[in-house]
Amino acid sequence: MLFQTMKDKLSDFFDHITDSPLRAFIAGGHTCGDVCRLAAGICSRTSPDEPLCLWTQDKSLTAAALLAAAIGGPRVIIPYAFSPHAFDEARSSISFSKILSESNDAPPADCTVILPDSVPAPAPLVYTACDADTPRVMLFTGGSTGKPKLWSKTARNLFSEALLLAETFGIGPQDCILSTVPPQHIYGLLFSVLVPLVSGCTVLEPVFSFPQEILAAAGDTGATILVSVPSQYHVLKTESLQRHNLRLAFSSAGMLPGPDADYFHGKTGIAVTEIYGSTETGGIAWKASLTDKQVFCTFNGIDWKIHNGRLQLRSDFLSPELPRDQDEFFTTADRAEPCGADSFTLHGRADDVVKVGGRRVDLSEICDKLKTLGGVRDAVVFAMHARTGRGADITALIAGTADASAIRAGLAKICEPYAIPRHIKIVESIPLLPTGKYDREMIEKYFEGKSLE
User: Fold this and answer.
1) Coil, strand or helix: which one is 412?
2) 104-129: average pLDDT
3) Which of 29, 99, 193, 200 is the least buried, fewest Cβ under 10 Å from its Cβ?
4) d(CA 375, CA 248)
5) Is the confidence at residue 111, as pLDDT, over 80?
6) What is the pLDDT of residue 1?
7) Cβ distance 378 to 308 under 8 Å?
């Protein structure tokens, strides 16, 4: 394990933030002292291990909730979105009666909303050692792969990964983070809340969404690090894109297309660093090359191997409920091939390979081929249960100007006939979640009445 003495690490970390109450956490806003006072107040309004739903994107409140959880306060529940549907899904999985939010707008009748001004610190925040491997935070993933899943994270999972990210990329007090990713997503939670806490850098409070907002913030705030997703890098392909004070740019939640990475590098001189991982596995590897070849370098302390073509992992970041073999390795759904002692190439997901009429079809490969056709800007390819007994029907939702007949004709030149999507719909844009991932629920609505795999 990376951090055998996580209790000592956490104790040192708490000493650091409590001894620096005037250090800024939010650029131009809340200090570490403010965050610690909020954390102490949250502990005073909740019982140890009591479930507390985090219903906010406010980074100071989020940081305070994580600190409170890490010292044995409430268990923090983070829904994947702020909608009635996501709220109901979270509550059906974990019963809770308290919500932490900066707004008191229409809470459920049987829930108590804890507001920032209602949690004055009764006493200074004091570090209380608790088991670093006990689940303290519950994260929901939803939308991009169908039914939401609940993953627990321990103090070791979260804080050791944040410390590793700060160390790997040299993030420190000299830095200011501009994020387009909400903190209820693990990528946003790490880079816009936990990394600032452990590294001493500051973070801008807003979650920037629109291209002009992002560009203006980069120019006006002195931000040195951009944390974003592939869909945002695509819309940043404008003439007004400049480097300003940026020195690092990160991307996750999907592979960054080569042309978008090249454009960003051409305008700023920065090679975008892609982070490969997931909510349940934590960070696994990274790359900052300017090629489409998916060669990733593993993070320090990640044990990995390839077995039957699939990537296996052993690390401090794995969620406790993931199944492991006798050597504590978890087998992912990602197909990979070794590429040196500390790197590997990715070749799609094992569950992207389906049978059509008894023949194997790699859905990720079909998606890549679709994106080479004229008039195709983006595409999502998945499988539906076939009613003809042929195994699966390949289905594609395509953003672009080409029509379905032209797409089939183009694919016929580069694909076997059985691999050409049976169902094709053309749309202006493919629905995305706030995290930048495809919104599977909205995508499925284009194919209502059909049985989806």
Assistant:
1) helix
2) 76
3) 29
4) 32
5) yes
6) 40
7) no
Q: Is residue 183 within 8 Å of residue 63, measured between CB atoms?
A: no
Q: How far is CA 86 from the centre of its chain?
A: 17
Residues in a beta bridge with 303: 314
Of 446 and 216, which is predicted with more confidence?
216
Q: CA-to-CA distance for 66 and 76, rounded, in angstroms?
A: 7
CATH architecture, domain 6-154? 3-Layer(aba) Sandwich (3.40)
Whole-model pTM?
A: 0.83
Other Cβ atoms less than 10 A from the Cβ of 144: the count is 19
Question: Cα 148 to chain center, whole Å?
Answer: 14
Residues of the chain with CATH 3.30.300.30: 357-445
> Residue 156 has which token pair?
């070791």
Question: For the chain, what is the mean pLDDT?
Answer: 87
Looking at the chain, how many residues does it have? 453
Output Rg (C-alpha) for the chain, integer angstroms. Answer: 23
Distance CA 320, CA 280 (A): 9
Provide CB contacts within 8 A for 220, sequence distance 6+.
none
CA 101 – CA 55 distance, rounded (Å):
5
441 - beta bridge partners? none
How far are the Cα atoms of 233, 377, 426 from residue 257, in angstroms, in the given order?
9, 11, 20
Instruction: Note the pLDDT tens digit of each residue in 5-57.
Output: 555 666 777 777 777 888 999 999 999 999 999 999 999 899 999 999 999 99
The CATH 3.40.50.12780 portion of the chain extends over 6-154, 208-350
Is 3.30.300.30 the CATH number for 357-445?
yes
pLDDT at 219: 95
Between strands 423-427 and 392-400, the pairing is parallel
**CB 283 within 8 Å of CB 165:** yes
Start-to-end C-alpha separation, the chain: 37
What are the E-state strand segments in 234-290?
248-251, 273-278, 282-287
For the domain made up of 208-350, the CATH class stated in words is alpha beta
pLDDT tops 50 at residue 196: yes
How far apart are alpha carbons 313 and 325 in whole angstroms? 10
Only one residue has tokens 């309004």, namely: 45
